[in-house]
Specification:
Blueprint lengths: L1 E9 L4 E11 L2 E12 L1 H15 L6 E6 L2 H8 L2 H7 L8 H11 L3 E6 L7 H14 L8 H10 L4
Parallel strand pairs: 1-4, 4-5
Antiparallel strand pairs: 1-2, 2-3
Helix pairs in contact: 1-4
């Protein structure tokens, strides 16, 4: 079993953001974080899960994702995202990330567990600290898909 803990953060929402990941498998532990110039909290929550799943080397892994994101967990567990696919993600936010998620999600046996945020869960607190720290780093990545979606919605493209 691979245990994945994730969290996302955005200051201003949208604003500078980041994600934090803790992955545990047996004796192995890995922490991952990245910050973005302009993004949303929900994008970071979802991207954290995607990146963690993409880091798993062998397909077919048993995975438990623990997150405080109702957006991510409910979208999958309640089956919403699968209906969004059927409707071409019409009027849904973050279709770029959801499509990326579905590609990697299919490769593993993934279960989800919700944990209340900021409730002294050690791994969730660590992920939060990683995400916030990443969002404040000097070398932030451009969330190009998000930026393009803003331009599209304002008629700039």
């Amino acid at each position: 079993m691979i245990y994945i803990y994730t969290d996302g953060a955005a200051s201003g929402n949208p604003g500078p953001g980041g994600y934090g990941i803790v992955m545990i498998s047996g004796k192995h532990r890995r922490e991952i974080a990245e910050g973005f110039k302009h993004t949303t909290n929900n994008r970071m929550e979802l991207l954290a899960v995607i990146v963690a799943l993409e880091k798993i080397k062998d397909p077919g892994a048993d995975v438990l994702v623990t997150s405080d994101s109702k957006y991510v967990i409910d979208s999958v567990v309640k089956g919403w995202v699968f209906n969004w696919v059927k409707k071409g993600f019409k009027n849904k936010k973050n279709p770029d990330l959801w499509k990326r998620f579905l590609l990697i999600y299919k490769k593993h046996h993934v279960k989800f567990e919700w944990v209340k945020g900021h409730n002294n869960h050690p791994e969730n607190e660590r992920c939060d600290a990683l995400a916030v720290h990443a969002s404040k780093s000097k070398n932030l990545t451009l969330d190009r898909a998000y930026e393009d979606s803003i331009k599209d919605s304002k008629g700039f493209l």
